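Entry 14: structure prediction run for Beta-mannosidase. Input pasted below.
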Amino acid sequence: MGRLLWGLLLVVLPIPALAQKKTALNTGWEFRRLDENVWRTAKVPGTVHTDLLFHKLIPDPFQGANEKGVQWIDKKDWEYRCNFSAPTADMASLEFTGLDTYADIYLNNVLIGKAMNMFVGKELPIKKYLKPGNNQLRILFHSPIAQDMPKFLQDRLVYPAGNDASDIPLSVHARKAPYHYGWDWGPRLVTSGIWRPIYLKTWNKVNLRDAWIRQQQLTDEQATLDATLTLDVQQEGIYTLLVKGDFETKQLSKKLAAGKQQVTIPFVIEKPQRWWPNGLGAQKLYPVSIAVMSGKDTLQTKQQRIGLRTIEVVNEADNMGTSFFVKVNGHPVFMKGANYIPSDNFLPRVTPERYVQLFKDMKEANFNMVRVWGGGIYENDQFYDLADEQGILVWQDFMFACTFYPSDKNFLQQVKEETHYNITRLRNHPSLALWCGNNEIAVAIKNWGWKDGYAYSDAQWMELLKGYDTLFGKLLRDEVKTLDPGRFYFPSSPISNWGKAEDFRHGDNHYWGVWHGMEWFEAFNTHVPRFMSEYGFQSFPDIHTVRKYADPSQWDINSYVMQSHQKSFTRGNAAIKTYMDHYYKEPKDFPSFLYLSQVLQAEGMKTGMEAHRRAMPFCMGSLYWQLNDCWPGASWSGIDYYGRWKAMHYFVKKAYEPVLISTVKEEGKIRTYVVNDGLEDASLQLELQLMDLEGKVIWQKSSPVKIKANSSAVEHSIDIADLLKGADSSRVILYTKLLTNHKFLTENVFYFVPAKQMPLPKAVITTDVTENNGVISIRLNTTGQLARNVCLMLEKDDTAHFSDNYFDLLPTGEKTVQVRTTLTAATVREQLRIMHLGNACKE
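Run finished. Output tokens:
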């Protein structure tokens, strides 16, 4: 109904010749290297790298060890051009939504503007430069390296940009995606180009530049809102401004003088339906159409979608320390999600379909929040539209991460333009939960040893601290307060460090004791903060993805190619191997090693996710590092570059279920918790079974439990000795299950010892593949033996997706899994490969 109404709104308002026209300039482009007079076709939006790749002038930077061989590109200047004609109108402009990064803009050989910030869109008036018929637009992109080198040479300070993969860290000087310069999960590929669309706009009399729909009050009876319109009036006159939707139309007729001005129109929505995060209710979105009319002529319309809800971030002292949690519509909500990085080093390659799939993946895995991390980009409009639709709250960082930044007048002016542009662009979205100034800079200042490590003098250090306070304590805070009042802002995440026990009682935390601190996974059970906004562990992608960048001669983690796709130089492969040797037996071959790295990551991260949820309301959020990849290689991601779910994302789906059953060893007892994220109490049946690896039940118990809304509680506790009664802990498992109205709800398996200590059988798994109405199902059974971490794969289909994978198949049960594939059932039957711990590891 919402989409139908949206269409009707557009039909109701007539669109005459006077209406604004907006045309994308996305065809007919050419590019060249400035020191060569050879023009070649170009794709816009695009990048220099991808255009060169299309013309086969460079090798694929993502394959083999090609990355360093294409790094000459960022040292050169590049030029793009196209021709266009413009319709007749009072006014005309070119809207540049993304130029990367240092660019001179020429129209008919006249310099009409300069770009200096990848994150800022520009609209330039062009009426006086236009010619009848054909017009030429040229954009000269200066090398970001050559452009910023003088700043480095002239500056009296070297900034601690440790993730800049160059001997000379220039990234801090550019308002450009920091990850382009390298990070510990991605390559150094410093791009240039027209990375977002360019539009030709023509209009008459008035240009509606912005419509800010601000919720003023929300009750069950009524929502009161303001529509604040920013207008650029070219011709003085009486205009009618309309706010239309599935509510009473509001209109205002007013005489407007020439010039830029704002007009506010209040309106009301009766009996409002609230917008809820995923898992707690519907994502009601109200379409709103803004129109500017002159007499009977509609000059311009702008469409928005709004969600009605209240969001409050509570960060205040309490009897447990300092809280950090999100309240939505008055209810504290445990945040479940991950940290997001850009989905490609070459951003225009991220298609609308990839964004849609990414949000489907998040929703299917029971996310209700995603953190847009501060070393990437402010995402495009589709990203936030999808977040609104899918009920995924957005934690939005400003684009600063892991280093000091300049604080001179020119740099601060660039940042102010950037924040103004992006706050006004994003503030209408109901999914936008909070703004954060930067990633990890505050905690780095206190704990990373920058002062001594970079030999800063006292005066230099004080200058850096003052610059930090100016940027994050004043400029960004003031911009949010002015442009998006009421939205929570804090200067830096995390608020507390992970080195001391006291740190975990205050605010959000990035816990890296596991991985960087080389603490075992069990530390997740004891190192639980008020809100975990970063934690993680690496794995490799599966063999399908590795084949994309490494041929069989390189199938060894110590090979040149595999090491070139491992960017965590300080830990990396050695850490994965150390943890793997601790918890598992040796894998039998390279594909088994890849599989085992994913199982290692998934099982370890499961420990953390469940610990955070068990600890609510002390802990009220779990955002792991990281959701996705920007290129193929080893990383902390749960979804690889090609969109394939690793083992971890399957585990996330279960660990983030609305109702979770979780068992842990605490104080000599085996305690089973039940966590309920819902807003209503739940009456359930709890079943527990202690069984051996062949399925013989040694002990069992069944009891009704009533789970309070939005709570975590111990529902069963027993001494380990009383439970085992002499049984060998390496040869038994505790299977737990919840039923609702006698129907299966959720389950979990608790292991008493690491897999390395278990005599896991080489279970034989039988399969039956069937197809019904185009859906292919695989039914699996074992011959009375436990099969742990069962992985399904189709040998020839690298796009296949299974509804469940890396699961434990109990000796007494069976499991049916659906597979999304282009293959027939008969071919699936032939190509199905099954791996589990019992057959993937050596004796």
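Notes: The longest strand covers residues 206-218. Will compare against the previous run tomorrow.
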